[in-house]
Amino acid sequence: MAAYKRVLLKLSGEALMADRSHGIDPERLNDYIDEIIEVSQKGTQVGIVIGGGNIFRGMSGVDAGFDRVKGDYMGMLATVINGLALQSAFVSKGAQARLFTAIRMEPVAEFYYKPSVIQALENNEIVIFSGGTGNPYFTTDTASSLRAIEMEADVMLKGTRVDGVYTADPEKDPEARKYEEITFTEALKKELRILDLTAFTMCKENEMPIIVFDMNQKGNLKRLISGEKVGTLVKI
Questions:
Q1: pTM to 2 decimals?
Q2: pLDDT single digits (tens) 89-122
Q3: Domains in the chain and their CATH numbers?
């Protein structure tokens, strides 16, 4: 029995690289696809926001001399490329998947429209959101918060390479302690970087719980959806 009927899964573009310097690692992509299909087949409706950092990051473009707005739009296009890769991988395995973009680019993908998204979810199609929010100066964290709220998800899942939220960066501080649960207020007070501030505030104000977990650990998503305690829960 699934603990959640509808979830928004946020994946970074960098996660798709695995150990590569850029692009998409087919093995990592297939691991993600298989696990998402499994939870979808058990009845959980899944929406996915994918980043584009494995191809291009807007802020890194600014550092290289690009105009910020143009750099952000380039980053949005990178998320569409990743979205197409996800959609193609799902379809190749027999799963129904719909790709929506925040910027019009038919026939590449459908333009985002909430009623179409809800209908797809209720038909148990996997929904992929790309193009961020469609606006410069906003991250895919913010797009994830926005889409989670709009699609009326039970929870927003942030798949990362660490197994939760810690008192400090566990990759740098061996004494960092993991939180099993933490409130939005506590996280703000401790200045824990769970999402960017805009995205975090949106979740807090709309009472959208967040679970931060290690997506690279096989089986974690399935265990989390089934109700096991995986990662860190951020709640009101």
A1: 0.94
A2: 999 999 999 999 999 999 999 999 999 999 999 9
A3: 6-235 (3.40.1160.10)
Question: Which residues, in sequence order, are CB contacts of 131 under 8 Å at separation 6+?
Answer: 76, 77, 79, 80, 101, 102, 103, 105, 112, 143
Percent over 70 (pLDDT), the chain: 98
| Cα dist from 224 to 90, 117, 121, 131, 221, whole Å | 21, 23, 19, 27, 5
